[in-house]
Write a structure and sequence with these properties.
CATH superfamily: Peptide deformylase
Strand order of the largest sheet: 2-3-4-5-6
Strand content: 25-35%
CATH class: Alpha Beta
Distance between the termini: 17 Å
Number of strands: 7
Largest sheet: 5 strands, antiparallel
CATH architecture: Alpha-Beta Complex
Structural class: alpha+beta
Helix content: 10-25%
Length: 187
């Protein structure tokens, strides 16, 4: 089932999410619905707060990028109760966008390499290191479960320049091809 994606201004996007257990209701269906929602919106990552749930869960599938670079093939993962335990490497600046902030892309600085501990959809524990675009995608989604958005990492002048777009988004005045939920309940 395709879920509405919560837009900038929704309070759930600013909450620090909570851990879940294997008993979380309908978890497999939620994960399937999150992937379906993400694909429908042409995204490569989606965090639970973006569908209105303040739980520590996000999904990533970089397969759509494999046509341009085969290294992204077969990178489809579920991250439950993740914790980034180490950030290393150079700081790299790259444009990012977000399904919860459609139509806005900004250059964001992030660490090149991370080490993350998480549970997969079967609650099997993992401790892995990722670099480059893999690390960037994970950090972006991880920020969501920490109540942060990529626009929090841009300069004050850039924030000022997108302020009107963000205010319009809060009011539901946004043009995107996927189902959304604005603060004022529009769309």
């Amino acid at each position: 089932m395709i879920l509405p994606i919560y837009l900038y201004g929704q309070p759930v996007l600013r909450k620090v999410a909570v851990d879940i257990t294997p008993e979380y209701p309908n978890l497999k269906k939620l994960i399937d619905d999150m992937f379906e929602t993400m694909y429908n919106a042409d995204g490569v990552g989606l965090a639970a707060p973006q569908v209105g749930l303040d739980i520590r869960l996000f999904v990533i599938d970089l397969e759509p990028l494999a046509e341009d670079d085969p290294k992204y093939a077969d990178f489809k993962k579920v991250f439950i109760n993740p914790k980034i335990v180490e950030y290393t490497g150079e700081i790299v600046k790259m444009d990012e966008g977000c399904l919860s902030i459609p139509g806005i892309n900004e250059a964001v600085e992030r660490e090149e390499t991370i080490r993350i501990q998480y549970l997969d959809e079967n609650f099997v524990s993992h401790d892995e290191v990722y670099s480059d675009f893999f690390a960037r995608c994970i950090q972006h989604e991880y920020d969501h479960i920490e109540g942060k958005l990529f626009i929090d990492k841009i300069s004050g002048i850039r924030k000022q320049m997108i302020k009107n777009k963000l205010n319009s988004m809060i009011k539901g005045r946004v043009n995107c091809h996927y189902r959304v939920k604005a603060v004022e309940g529009r769309r």
